Amino acid sequence: MTTYSIHVVEYATAPDNPIGAFLNGKYNAGVCPILFGFIVIRGEGIVALVDAGFDWELHDKKHTSGLTVDKWESPAKVLQSLGIAPADVTHVLPTHAHFDHLGGLRYFPNAHFYMQERELSDWVWRMSLDSRFRWLTSFVDSADILECIDLARKGRFTLLKGRSDNVLPGIDLVPAFDTHTAGSQYVVVRNSARTQADSWILAGDLVYQFENLDGGDAEKPFYLPIGAASGSAFNLVMTTHEMIEAAGGDRTRVIPVHESRLAERFPSATSEYGLKVIELCLGDGHESVLPSVEARAAAASNR
Amino acid sequence: MRFLDNVNMDFVAEVIGVGPAEAVAASHTQDEGYYQAASTAFEDMKYVVALLTAILLTDFASSDRGALGAGFHWRLAEPLERAKQSLMTSRATTQGARHHRHHLVVALEKLDAIAGMVRDGADMRDDPRCASVMAGLRQVVRELRTVSKLAAGFDVVNFATSCCATHAKPHQFPGNRVQSS
Ligand SMILES: [Zn+2]
Question: What φ, ψ does residue A174 adopt, rounded to 5°?
Fold first, then answer.
């Protein structure tokens, strides 16, 4: 029996990103597109998102330097592909505090949030250092942290102290300290009667691309850490191994959420917004959403 | 000393005359002195917002309540004072710059009031003023976002150095994917 359906719902794309940020040491390998997506886990009355996305409406597209985002659409629009609204989201599991993972908190009025305490306490600690250490905090928008505090006051934000199994039935949150960030975590979905069989690992930014999992060498795979990290490459390599082990040794079950080629590896459809819906797996009794996504896109293009 | 290094002066200078919108470019040329001062104030205010957020977070969510100590509260004063000085001594002449300055001043006054409440080191979790501190900080954040939309060089988040989208000026290489060396 398969408990949850899992989809990657793309809400934005960015066209030209340096591969060196994704694959350690590949400084002259050019650029590639990335996707920004919500991973949606549905079943047993739960609608859980891995990461909250970012709120491009709050940022100034005209003046913002250094980021080209294509086709950003709101959660209300993109989640329609699954027949759900942001208010239906019951849980959000932010993997870390970067703006594109924590910036969309306000969109989910009924959700409870789970994050590693270390991710925030380390941010505070880093804030206590002098200005020469500012790189360590420059990827976090303090306005997002302010939202976290507000949610905590309302009892909707739980800070986890390390590994937390069965945060939701069959869903574990596993810390990866001092990797991409100080308190990153990944999500393990044990999808078959809550055993390790049929597990999916939703990796946040601990891996960006398939090559992080196999070094680009399918025959003789090796772990190639990401480039953009405030923690250590060593910890990233060890975490990559740990994630693949948690997936029963199947590295295709470790999902890099920014990897645009996910849409080639798994069944997918393109919505009327030109954004992908990628179907990782279907829970028992769930039907594929892809035909209806395609039908809506076709109807929109005929209008 | 600016903590969050989101604006660099070279960039502010660079956009003069080549800004994304002509109006912004024109007002930058005429109000160059103002925008430079405003940039300092903006960065200092962002730093103060981040410090206040860190203090609140520790009060609310951390198991290690004593982690920050009084020094953290004390550090609010210097950047606030500098932001005041930069703004008060600067002069905005064009309508665009005056509008920009108006929002910065509103944010600064609010921020000053909040810092005053927090600086005494009271534990905000049990403090009745907490709700107004939270509401005030959110208002400051809204004002700073407005400021960032009114002129180039005032980024709330420095995307140019951010994690996955780090590409201020992408260099195109043949072949989009990993090349074997
Ligand atoms: Zn990140």
Answer: -120, 125
